[in-house]
Amino acid sequence: MTRQTLSWMALFTALALPGVASAHHQAKEMDGMLVTPDPANMTLYTFDKDAGGKSMCNDACAENWPPLMAKAGEKNEGKWTQIKRDDGTMQWAYDGKPLYTFIKDKKAGDKTGDGVKDVWHIAKP
Predict the structure, then answer these.
(1) Residue 66 in contact with residue 55, Cβ under 8 Å?
(2) 3-state secondary structure of 62
(3) Assigned domain for 7 exists
(4) Model confidence, pTM
(5) pLDDT tens, position by position, 62-119
């Protein structure tokens, strides 16, 4: 076997191991703020009305401020925790604050939700 073949085999073996392929973080830091973990890098926000590890943004609010949803099998890690939403789905929170995107942000770097109604703020690590 060639060295390249062995490298690919090692990669596939590592990805097959439980937990190795899981995301290290549920979001990432970029320019001093938290952004979505996908290639879109959309700005994440917190909502001042959320309290006690509970999201107060449901129904029409969640249509405008989509929650950063947790996928089955993802685990809490450090300041990253999951909260149960009113509809029973799981949402990511950072340092106890549920995280959301904003429907009016269209591309990475957009921050149009910051300061909306003085209750929405860019999430920072």
Answers:
(1) no
(2) helix
(3) no
(4) 0.80
(5) 999 999 999 989 999 999 999 999 999 999 999 999 999 999 999 999 999 999 999 9
The tokens for 81 are: 């925790």
**16 in a structural domain:** no
Structure tokens of 26? 């549920």
Question: Is position 103 within any domain?
Answer: yes
Helices (H), the chain: 3-16, 60-64
* 27 in Cβ contact with 36 (< 8 Å): yes
C-alpha angle 48-53-58 in degrees, rounded to nearest 5: 65
Beta strand segments in the chain, E: 28-30, 33-35, 45-47, 80-84, 90-94, 97-98, 120-122
What pLDDT is attached to residue 117? Answer: 98
